[in-house]
Design goal:
The chain has 359 residues and is of the alpha/beta class. The chain folds into two domains: 217 residues, Isopropylmalate Dehydrogenase (3-Layer(aba) Sandwich); 139 residues, Isopropylmalate Dehydrogenase (3-Layer(aba) Sandwich), CATH 3.40.718.10. The strands form two sheets. A twelve-stranded mixed beta sheet has the order 3-4-2-1-5-12-11-6-7-10-8-9, sandwiched between helices. Helix 6 crosses helix 7. The longest helix has 23 residues. It is globular. The two termini are 34 Å apart. 44% of the residues are buried.
Length: 359
């Protein structure tokens, strides 16, 4: 029985990309069932298509109508799509975008309602998924809107964690978007996530500058002196151990990133380009700051290798196990900070004095 196992949802993403290939490669290892019950939100028809293509007939995945039917320690798929579905490997299409959104909507609803313990989102095409029902730069912003909570985009591999002040923001909008208040907010979320999600007692955070060479003392820009450094100073006063602003090129080039528990970059490519150059195959995208757990592989649909049995499943595998670890770490953290003294409603004695009953 799956009574004590976590239920982990996996959306199928773009059906024409590598999602089903990497899912089948990961789920081909039955040891996963020792840790969780994987539930694919997708299409049994598409799953059967890819199982036959890649000769994964030994992967036993049962079709169920809902999470409530996933009661045994095995793998499941929930049909989220119309039976009129066509696979065209390596091609982008609005139909594939619609099917990706159908699965995401059902899975995210189950996530919000607590019917699954965590969600892993397989890669989508951010262009074809756009519609009147999805007008977001990506999964992160969609889930943020759905939850009504502010989040933090973080990529992680082993002990290297990179978070962003601005997510999918055009370069010409980056500088106007960065404020002292926003940096402090992101540092607070990052610090809290490191403590409760990664079980790091006193995390150390490196904060990168915005301009080349962190502006060379104002020669190449003023943001470091007027915005970033004041934010770092304020965060340190609030108990968040952070250093900077640091020059991005030297920081990555000298391997200084290994000396910190996390890095806060100002914009997308400043943090993620070097991260993916180093950890493309093992990187995981984690959305910190939300009340639920969401991870994803740190790569896209990979149309160029779709259908060729060439996709590396390591990133999805790491995303699955990280989701499990974060759920467990949050449970441990909640228990650790729980008040051990249970206080009943105050009662009065014969003199009208309150009697506190501690159990």
């Amino acid at each position: 029985m799956s009574k004590n196992l976590l239920k982990i949802g996996i959306t199928h993403g773009d059906i024409n990309g590598v999602s089903y290939e990497i899912m089948l490669k990961v789920l081909n290892d039955n040891r996963i069932l020792e840790h969780c019950v994987p539930i694919i939100y997708g299409s049994p028809k598409v799953l059967a298509f890819y199982k036959k293509m890649y000769a994964f007939d030994s992967v036993n995945i049962s079709t169920v109508r809902s999470v409530a039917d996933a009661v045994f320690s095995r793998m499941y798929v929930i049909n989220c799509c119309s039976d009129e579905i066509k696979v065209e490997t390596g091609k982008q299409s609005t139909e594939a975008g619609k099917f990706a959104l159908d699965a995401l909507n059902i899975a995210s609803s189950d996530l919000i309602e607590g019917r699954i313990d965590a969600l892993i989102t397989a890669p989508i095409n951010k262009s074809t998924i756009q519609s009147d029902k999805f007008n977001f730069p990506g999964h992160t912003e969609f889930l943020e809107k759905l939850s009504g909570q502010r989040s933090l985009m973080m990529l992680t591999s082993g002990n290297v964690r990179v978070a962003l002040v601005t997510n999918h923001t055009a370069i010409h909008n980056v500088s106007p978007s960065i404020t002292k208040e926003l940096i402090i907010e992101k540092l607070k979320v990052l610090h809290q996530s490191l403590v409760q999600d990664f079980a790091i007692t006193c995390p150390r955070i490196a904060v990168l500058g915005l301009n080349p060479h962190s502006s060379d003392n104002g020669l190449l820009g003023k943001e470091e002196q007027t915005i970033i450094k004041p934010a770092i100073d304020e965060a340190n006063l609030q108990g968040i151990v952070c250093t900077g602003p640091l020059s991005s090129d030297g920081f990555w080039g000298a391997g200084t990133f290994a000396s910190y528990d996390a890095i806060l970059a100002m914009y997308h490519d400043q943090g993620l380009a070097p991260f993916k150059a180093l950890f493309q195959d093992t990187g995981v995208n984690f959305t910190a700051g939300l009340s639920f757990v969401r991870t994803s592989p740190a790569h896209g649909t990979a149309y160029n290798i779709a259908g060729k049995n060439a996709a590396n499943p390591s990133s999805l595998s790491q995303a699955l196990y990280l989701a499990i670890d974060v759920v467990r770490n949050r449970a441990f953290y909640k228990q650790a900070i729980k008040n051990p003294l249970k206080v009943d409603t105050p009662k009065a004695d014969e003199n009208g004095l309150e009697i506190m009953n501690y159990e």
